């Protein structure tokens, strides 16, 4: 399914969203020259691999049968990602009834293992299972593309600069350390591996041998996979004292300009959880309205940002958080999504980013992604214009900025 910032691996593996909207480098080599160019790339890579401690034997085994790039992977790099896909469309597949049922079954079967992982890393089982479910449907679909060939294809084409060359060298290091055999090192078309869809650099930094067999095996070991997710989230700053967030209702006349506060302050201002529970008093949170004022409202904590460290997509983070709640018996979202309302496509979001940039409210590439950076810029514009500050990008907002 779906690390550049580590978010790339999860999003690409899920096949649902790509967290970085950099344009692919065009492939200018004629087809007939590709095998020769590819062979030259591998030959040039070898000294760097050997300097990192990769043996001649490991290098040869890794590239055995890898004589040319994978044309299917090169074709994938030329497709536009769906950066403007609605959150609610994403959640339909990510938090399905079938996935909830399968996840609860896995929770029961792995109860003892999950107890031990929770005790060591402080990440709740619902969250671990939710990542596992979104990334590989609980280990059933970790990807079948040979990782070395995928990374070599992308690296030789210089897709996203040197990123995939570095990941290829990291993958060779993994093989040298003996965690996995070359023929078993498989994953997504973009090199994200196994049940947790780690890129090789993330594997080297955070994968765990939790079952104690001497190998960090995120391809076949459920214990290693779940513990590796937990170790990575702990490194990303997961706070065991906080939830990822809560669906809430806002009181009439709620001041949307004060959208960041302590959870206790939100409670004092009349914000209530939709499930009837009490908001904690401690912990910083911010108001998140991914469908605008007409859709579900959430208070999200720093743990939401930890989830985004795994994959920078807001939709992904919301899916993981909500799936975690559902797996532990929580209710479905109570507020409807504005699925019939008009919305901006990628070109519209890019136009909005450019319009906000001319007003000094948005900095960076106009990438057409409706993430936290654009949300904050929209809020600042709305506050300055005396509009309801929900941070939601709409066609009406773009028309206003463009003066249409």
Question: Summed up, what is this model?
Answer:
The protein is mainly α. The chain is built from 18 helices and seven strands.
Features:
globular, two-stranded antiparallel sheet, 48% helix, mainly alpha, single chain, five-stranded antiparallel sheet, disordered N terminus
Describe this structure in words.
Strand 6 and strand 7 form a beta hairpin. The protein has helices spanning 7-14, 34-51, 56-62, 71-77, 87-94, 97-109, 111-121, 125-136, 147-156, 163-177, 200-206, 222-235, 263-268, 302-310, 314-327, 346-358, 372-385, 395-402, and strands at residues 145-146, 186-187, 245-249, 260-262, 272-273, 284-288, 297-300. Mean pLDDT is 91; it is low at 1-33 and 80-84. It starts with 6 loop residues before the first helix and ends with a helix. It is mainly alpha-helical and 404 residues long. The chain is globular. Helix 6 crosses helix 8 and helix 8 (125-136) crosses helix 12. The relative contact order is 0.14.
Write the layout of secondary structure elements.
Blueprint: H1 7-14, H2 34-51, H3 56-62, H4 71-77, H5 87-94, H6 97-109, H7 111-121, H8 125-136, E1 145-146, H9 147-156, H10 163-177, E2 186-187, H11 200-206, H12 222-235, E3 245-249, E4 260-262, H13 263-268, E5 272-273, E6 284-288, E7 297-300, H14 302-310, H15 314-327, H16 346-358, H17 372-385, H18 395-402
Antiparallel strand pairs: 1-2, 3-5, 3-7, 4-6, 6-7
Helix pairs in contact: 5-15, 6-8, 7-12, 8-12, 8-15, 9-10, 10-11, 11-12, 14-15, 16-18
